[in-house]
Amino acid sequence: MSETECPTCGKSDFSDESYMKRHHKLIHGESLRQKYECSIGGCNNKSYNPKFCSQECLGKARRAYEFGTCEAPECDNETYKQKYCSNNCANKNSWRYRDNAAKREEVRRKLSEMRKGKKNPFYGETHSDEVRAQISESIGGENHPHYGVTGKDHPSYGKVSGLKLQTVEETGHTVRSNWEKEIDLMLHNAGINYEYESRTFELSDELTYTPDFIVEDVIIEVKGWPDDKSKRRARLFMQGFSQYTYLVIGNKLPCDIFIKWKNRDRLLGILEKSIEKEK
Length: 279
Prior knowledge:
Layout: H1 17-28, E1 36-37, E2 46-47, H2 55-66, E3 67-69, E4 78-80, H3 87-92, H4 105-114, H5 129-139, E5 166-167, E6 174-175, H6 178-189, E7 195-196, E8 201-202, E9 208-209, E10 213-215, E11 218-223, H7 228-240, E12 245-250, E13 257-260, H8 267-278
Parallel strand pairs: 11-12, 12-13
Antiparallel strand pairs: 1-2, 3-4, 5-6, 7-10, 8-9, 10-11
């Protein structure tokens, strides 16, 4: 039987197959188009659509595609048109949380060695004055995240920053520099009753001061490189707390008594005289 011959009545004078199928549908009341099983599980209907038998099954397929389970580890929450149920789950599955080589201590150490000293592309380079001014302006004043936050509401209230923290075994104090360590041991070995960073003074609405050492009414500040903020803090302290004797060791700040670091051995004698004078 040719492709243009009707399978029911045998008529074959059709110009092509499509006319034969149209004849069969009109005359014999049955379509010759191929029917497909519905692709939705549990539905046994057949239709001319190669995937779905009805709009209802199409809707089921769409919902199954749009709704799913969160792909984050240890999360079974339902999702809608998304891989993750929340931003937290998305972050947990990001590269920062995965077990990747860059997180391993030995790899981080090697990467650090690769960028040390002359191997660093920025070695020997400095920012121009224009760039420094731009950086300062971008994080200064109202642009600073802690602008307007004062007193105990400030996250740094009562805290002293420093990158060279070390614990003095003899005193148990955690100091911020070798200079502070030496003065701490000097006072300890001399049997002087003193305190280390035990008090915080409020100098203004936005500025506080935690002195290094306190010996009765003598405030001892061990100062490395002084900046404008340190000088301002020293002036405000002397104005607001004149009952204390303000003593600075190292580099000069506004103070009552200044001792150069090379003359630091004079500290004990000065403290002895100050204590006797107060008595």
